[in-house]
């Protein structure tokens, strides 16, 4: 079928380096020695852990419950025992920790009872809920929970469903191999998405450097009797970016600060469609994904890998060369060096590249920007990276926003073509995260201001109310007194006024005293409690340690820090730790 | 005669323009001091009083009047001083007090006696609790002002630095790594 294709501006053609890893079929990676499954693996809320240390889990059992609508469940990738739930290193450029569930496999790889989902009788809401419970997220790299994208917009009719099999980034071949080998399941998954979104047509975009994948997908579409159109798009990085692929296939340009759904287009990755179908037809939640192992290795290839597998252990399957000095997660354009080799594979891990200086020679030093404009020609979003760079570098964030920094998809084309080797994308990432942080701070400050102003208003109001009450009481008292005085005057008994005032004075004092006594008692109780909570590390002391502590205490008493020797002896460290 | 006519025309012009100006000054009168609002927008709204004024607004007013320096706000940091200097055309000065990382107050719930003193001290109502009931701090609302520390009779409130997590982590400013030349490195080892 002939179809008019469109072009996006810019783009680059880095060496694809894909043939190395397409030679062999997808192999199943063996069970790793241990698994660390991060709970936060999708955009949105962090799933809550529902297992505890010591629990036995089966493959596919829920271990993290979705928190809110934009969040997806996390499951045990194999059967075994939960050995810990807590912080673990993340495959993230920050190198920070986040909560993981650590599982020791028992080697049996035993599934939970798998029930196919009854698609025929289910409502669309039930299907979306099921996909959320199965942990289906966008596997193209953004890991946005898929069910959140499967609600058709009410205002705009859904015109095109775009399925992304472009896989434009160099080295990565996991989607290519998946389409070659498991096209039928992908097409069935696309069918589910089609039924939920009801688009007018379905377009599957595949770069023309993957003829085998395109042929397999065409055959599968025919075999399933669907009317999806498989389109081969020109190989040009970043044709696999959602907005670029939509542009190429439909000619629609998604405007700034709008989503493709506003134009009646939705986009999914082929691997997402595949996992959705596995969940629906086989009752298998997302516990594994295809990962390309390539780069500085002797046996590059694609593996089906359990989520949570340590990367260094996995990379051994591809036999890395001895000069490997790091692991890049993702491709060479958008990927990053993982902070340490033992971080786990997550749902967003599409490729691991063994890094070596031979393969990626260190960049020559950065030179000043000569404003040649090569970056602006390469930018697929028609931005002006050289201007953005200037303002980001000067930390003039308002200006970067004027130059639409948030339209930048961080594809790396500008850095790739820069003759001065300026790490432009890094400057843009810095500017973006700085702007986000400031916006958050501003919001917090505004909230604090309204709360502070409300508190002041409330205090004023309370004061006014109290004054009013007092005035009323005083008026009543005065009226009463006046009446009494009138009565007394009538009776000719003047000293009655003095008598009436006296008991009021007396009642204040005991009340105050009682209050003070209560506060003192409470403070004493709290102090006793604090002292009772003695640290455990003072239980079994050697004589030297006891002597040292006594000396320190003596010094502190001399310096006037501790209260008194007797107390210090009773609670040697409690006072210090509480301060 | 001519000169009188000229004077009359000029006088008429002055009266008309004066009336126009007078009308504009009433009709388009700006409520409040716009400068104070601009200054206040820069201040971090912790309401901590470390500047010596009872809240961010009084400090902003004092700055606008030129009564005090622009370097008295530690939570705003050097960046705040810089922005105030840019706004007001004053000179950047180093901060009076030390700049601290962002903090949040935490109540030790075992020791709290429920005296409500900290609730009264909190400028942003970020502490919940009732008399003789345990109090606790709403961490998201806490500005880290430390005003709840002094009134506590049992010293059960402590400040904790907000740790860096994946949610608040920021990309760093790109810097060029300076690596020692191989020969130099070898020389150092020897």
Automatic annotation (TrEMBL), chain A:
Membrane topology: Peripheral membrane protein
GO cellular component, one term: plasma membrane
Binding site for [4Fe-4S] cluster 2: 379, 408, 411, 414
One Gene Ontology molecular-function label: electron transfer activity
Keyword Transcription regulation: no
Residues reported to bind [4Fe-4S] cluster 1: 369, 372, 375, 418
Pfam families: Complex1_51K (PF01512), Fer4_7 (PF12838), RnfC_N (PF13375), SLBB (PF10531)
Keywords: 4Fe-4S, Cell inner membrane, Cell membrane, Coiled coil, Electron transport, Iron, Iron-sulfur, Membrane, Metal-binding, Repeat, Translocase, Transport
Cofactors named for this entry: [4Fe-4S] cluster
Intracellular or extracellular location(s): Cell inner membrane
EC number of this enzyme: 7.-.-.-
Complex formation: The complex is composed of six subunits: RnfA, RnfB, RnfC, RnfD, RnfE and RnfG.
Chain's role: Part of a membrane-bound complex that couples electron transfer with translocation of ions across the membrane.
Family: Belongs to the 4Fe4S bacterial-type ferredoxin family. RnfC subfamily.
Protein name: Ion-translocating oxidoreductase complex subunit C
Name of the coding gene: rnfC
Automatic annotation (TrEMBL), chain B:
Source organism of this protein record: Azonexus fungiphilus
Primary enzyme class: translocase
Subunit structure: The complex is composed of six subunits: RnfA, RnfB, RnfC, RnfD, RnfE and RnfG.
Keyword Metal-binding: yes
Cellular component aspect of the GO annotation: plasma membrane
MF term (GO), any: metal ion binding
Chain ranges passing through the membrane: none
Subcellular location: Cell inner membrane
Function recorded in the entry: Part of a membrane-bound complex that couples electron transfer with translocation of ions across the membrane.
Record's protein name: Ion-translocating oxidoreductase complex subunit B
Residue numbers binding [4Fe-4S] cluster 1: 48, 51, 56, 73
InterPro entries named in the record: 4Fe-4S_dom (IPR007202), 4Fe4S_Fe-S-bd (IPR017896), 4Fe4S_Fe_S_CS (IPR017900), Elect_transpt_cplx_RnfB/RsxB (IPR010207), RnfB/RsxB_Proteobac (IPR016463), RnfB_subfamily (IPR050294)
Region of interest: Hydrophobic: 1-25
Binding site for [4Fe-4S] cluster 3: 122, 142, 145, 148
